[in-house]
Design goal:
Blueprint lengths: L1 E7 L3 H11 L5 E4 L11 E4 L2 E4 L17 H8 L9 E3 L3 E5 L3 E5 L3 H11 L4 H13 L11 H9 L2 H13 L10 H14 L2 E3 L3 H14 L3 E3 L4 E7 L2 E7 L4 E9 L3 H7 L13 E10 L12 E5 L13 E9 L12 E10 L1 H5 L5 H23 L8 E5 L1 H8 L23 E3 L8 H17 L4
Parallel strand pairs: 1-2, 1-12, 2-9, 6-14, 12-18
Antiparallel strand pairs: 3-4, 5-8, 6-7, 10-11, 11-12, 13-16, 13-17, 14-15, 15-16
Helix pairs in contact: 1-8, 1-13, 2-13, 5-6, 6-7
Bound molecules: flavin-adenine dinucleotide.
């Protein structure tokens, strides 16, 4: 087979890149190793029920009339109509540093602003200056690493408030420990605090089906259960990919969405990065009957919590760090009709290598997973109330699960700490998009796919 443009990976960056190109030419092929599209943000079935793997909330909420908003720009680039997706806005979310302070925020930025005035009055003028500096900052101008933490401390002069502001942004989009690059911080501050969060109506499957159908309508093709095992290249030019089956597909241009080192491995250019800490997470899903909903918060969409004096966002020493995390109520969005069951999801930082050490002992691995889920329910019960007696179904994904299903090295959702913002990794016709290009999360990865196609692929068409 011979295609003009080939994309490895049908996660959200690959799907968006494929649609963007297919708008101009149908000579595009998406190659995915798994049997479902979506990558990190996909779904599976248990007992006939669809369970989403990733979706807490989509960032970058924007009203349809706000033409310049990233969400609407993305829709335009993909030729998607906002009316095709019904959006449920978050109710309110909270950053809760137990026994210390909590702040609320929603899709109305004034709420966060008022909370700062109320809870951190001494930092309020600094917060206004911080917001002005964020508004003036161009996060897409390529620079070296600038510490977001130092930037925030300069304006706010309050390390608790700095940690509270950084906590949600780190959990939803930082691949580095205990700090963020200022550009990434600005993108995340805008997308979570200034724009806000929502859920598309239905499940992630509905959203993925819409994207796939849209892509196929433009004539784009997709190969499922087709793992790329080699990228064939000579000097700085890629000529083809080889699949697990041995089939070779020639291509003129290649976009890889599977990560930097993962791509280098396919090129036969293994790189080592032992000094680098990739961040793993453990995610538990608890399903409960609707009859218990009134006993748990109905007015909070997501709670980002921390229980210690100093918030640490780093790879834990052992399996899981329960001192901080994210609690998500996927049904607590505006206008979502109650179903028979509802979910609570919890996320904590986890150490890939501790879980990896149990890989060969299935019983011990499963027991540790069950123990981690118990510990998670006990920890978050301190914040939202006890619910463990009412759980009817639960599942837990460790970094090992993420690695197994998406081939993300060490199951690190946000990839390598170093990013390749221009998508270039030393080849004339091979580029990187998605997690390791640098835009994270659902909308971030889709924007990454679109921008890499715009910069590197379409000009050659
Ligand atoms: C538990 C969890 C919760 C999350 N919650 C949210 C959320 O609420 N909001 C949000 O915005 N983001 C969330 N995210 C993050 C978001 O899902 C990711 O940032 C985004 O989906 C990344 O997309 P991607 O295309 O860059 O990478 P991926 O989704 O990793 O896509 C890469 C694809 O490449 C495929 N692949 C890998 N190797 C090969 C190969 N050799 N050959 C062929 N195919 C290959 C993989 O199977 C995968 O489909 C969450 C992630 C997880 C895991």
């Amino acid at each position: 087979m011979n295609v003009r443009f080939l994309i490895i990976g049908s996660g959200l960056s690959g799907l968006a890149a494929a649609i963007r190109y297919a708008r101009f030419s149908p000579d595009v092929l998406l190659v995915e190793k798994h049997s479902r599209i979506g990558g990190l943000n996909s779904y599976f079935y248990r007992n006939g029920t669809l369970i989403e793997t990733g979706l807490h909330a989509v960032t970058n909420f924007a009203e349809p009339k706000n033409k310049k908003a990233p969400l609407n720009q993305l829709f335009r680039q993909l030729k998607l109509n906002r009316k095709q997706i019904h959006i449920h806005e978050q109710i309110a979310s909270e950053v809760c540093f137990t026994n210390r302070e909590s702040i609320l925020f929603s899709n109305n930025f004034e709420i966060l602003h008022d909370q700062i005035i109320l809870k951190f009055p001494h930092a309020a003028p600094g917060f206004d200056n911080l917001v002005s500096a964020i508004n003036a900052y161009d996060p897409f101008y390529l620079r070296g690493f600038i510490s977001a933490k130092a930037f925030l401390l300069h304006y706010l002069q309050d390390s608790l408030l700095v940690d509270m502001i950084m906590c949600p942004l780190m959990f939803y989009g930082s691949s580095i420990e205990n700090d963020m690059d200022l550009g990434q911080f600005v993108i995340m501050f805008r997308s979570i605090f200034q724009e806000g969060m929502f859920r598309p109506h239905g499940t992630i499957k509905d959203f993925l089906d819409l994207l796939r159908h849209h892509y196929e309508q433009f004539g784009g093709r997709i190969l499922m259960q087709s793992r790329v095992t080699k990228i064939l290249h000579k000097n700085r030019k890629v000529s083809a990919v080889e699949l697990e089956t041995g089939e070779v597909i020639q291509c003129d241009r290649l976009l890889s969405t599977i990560g930097y080192q993962e791509t280098m491995q396919l090129l036969g250019r293994e790189t080592t990065d032992e000094s680098v800490n990739r961040l793993g997470f453990i995610e538990s899903i608890f399903q409960l009957p609707i009859s218990c909903r009134h006993r748990l918060p109905v007015d909070r969409t997501i709670i980002f919590y921390n229980t210690t004096d100093h918030f640490l966002y780093q790879r834990p020493q052992s399996f899981v760090d329960f001192n901080s995390g994210v609690i998500c109520f996927p049904s607590n969005f505006q206008g979502i009709e109650p179903q028979n069951y509802f979910e609570i999801r919890s996320t904590h930082l986890a150490d890939f290598f501790s879980w990896k050490a149990l890989q060969s002992d299935r019983d011990a691995y499963l027991a540790k997973k069950a123990q981690a889920a118990r510990r998670s329910t006990e920890t978050i019960a301190e914040i939202i109330g006890n619910f463990s007696d009412n759980i009817v179904y639960e599942d837990t994904f460790t970094p090992l699960t993420v690695e197994r299903f998406t081939a993300k090295k060490e199951g690190a959702i946000y990839g390598h700490p170093q990013k390749f913002k221009d998508g270039k990794i030393g080849y004339d016709n091979l580029f990187l998009a998605g997690t390791d290009q640098g835009y994270l999360g659902i909308i971030g990865s889709m924007l990454s796919g679109v921008s890499m196609v715009n910069q590197h692929i379409l000009p050659a068409l």
